């Protein structure tokens, strides 16, 4: 998850004055140890061979992730698929393309925080490697609907190590109004979706960026940003995949 808009210092100060951050136990904040068979669409993007962000398989060549994860030289990135573990197992694929949304505009705003990755060689599907369906253009998720998030990100805000085993958690989708009240109307745009409990306690965190938010077996979100992780009153913010459905189709054929 990307650090909140202004800067790391602002976010760190905000976490000091907000409700305490719940501690995790070797997991995405508030989640549980999982297996890749539970989330076979989950991938790990690698920067110089180490876990950097998450992503979601949508067919044998293409992956959906977050644009803020891919701001360095193309040659430094690859992906690991089919592994429960962050740093071992599965197979590593070289990338043929990284397509960041052309209107992504960090640091002005985190709008349009979505990317497509294409691997050089097709991925072989198995119990550990499966694509996830995409929503229809502008399809909405009802407020209160539970979603599944997963990844190998930091297990505690500011002080936590990354998870070695893929972590899985369930969080409810919030209304746009609730999210805009938390962050300010100008920061929550139509291409974003928010999810989390009002009291906090469960959330994606740093290193989970680009990873999936899934509702009823459909990819509806890609982890994008938030104020800290799992803080009361601050839901996680995700790129709303349905908003970008036509863009994904135009660039990947999916």
From TrEMBL:
Source species: Neodiprion lecontei
Superkingdom of the source species: Eukaryota
GO molecular function: serine-type endopeptidase activity
The keyword Ribonucleoprotein belongs to this UniProt entry's keyword annotation: no
Keyword set, alphabetical order: Disulfide bond, Hydrolase, Protease, Secreted, Serine protease, Signal, Zymogen
Signal peptide: 1-18
Name of protein: Trypsin-3
Any single Gene Ontology cellular-component annotation: extracellular space
One GO BP annotation of this record: proteolysis
Localization per record: Secreted
Similarity section: Belongs to the peptidase S1 family.
A Pfam family matched in the record: Trypsin
Chief place of localization: secreted
Domain annotation Peptidase S1: ranges: 28-253
């Amino acid at each position: 998850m990307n650090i909140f808009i202004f800067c790391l210092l602002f976010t760190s100060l905000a976490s000091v004055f907000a409700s305490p951050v719940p501690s995790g136990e070797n997991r995405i904040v508030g989640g549980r140890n999982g297996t890749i068979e539970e989330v076979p669409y989950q991938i790990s993007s690698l920067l110089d061979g180490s876990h950097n962000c998450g992503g979601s398989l949508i067919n044998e060549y293409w992956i959906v992730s977050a644009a803020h994860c891919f701001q360095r030289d193309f040659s430094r990135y690859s992906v690991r698929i089919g592994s429960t573990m962050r740093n071992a197992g599965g197979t590593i694929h070289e990338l043929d393309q990284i397509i960041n949304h052309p209107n992504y505009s960090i640091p002005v705003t985190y709008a349009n925080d979505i990317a497509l990755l294409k691997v050089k060689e097709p991925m072989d599907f198995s119990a550990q490697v499966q694509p996830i369906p995409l929503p229809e253009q502008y399809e909405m998720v009802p407020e209160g609907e539970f979603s599944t998030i997963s990844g190998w990100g930091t297990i505690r805000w500011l002080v936590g190590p990354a998870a070695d085993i893929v972590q899985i958690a369930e969080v409810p989708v919030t209304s746009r109004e609730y999210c805009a009240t938390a962050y300010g109307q100008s920061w929550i745009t139509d291409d974003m979706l928010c999810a989390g409990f009002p009291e906090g306690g469960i959330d994606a965190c740093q290193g989970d960026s680009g990873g999936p938010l899934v509702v009823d077996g459909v990819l509806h979100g890609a982890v994008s940003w938030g104020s800290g992780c799992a803080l009361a009153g601050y839901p996680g913010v995700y790129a709303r995949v349905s908003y970008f459905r036509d863009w994904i189709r135009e660039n990947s054929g999916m």
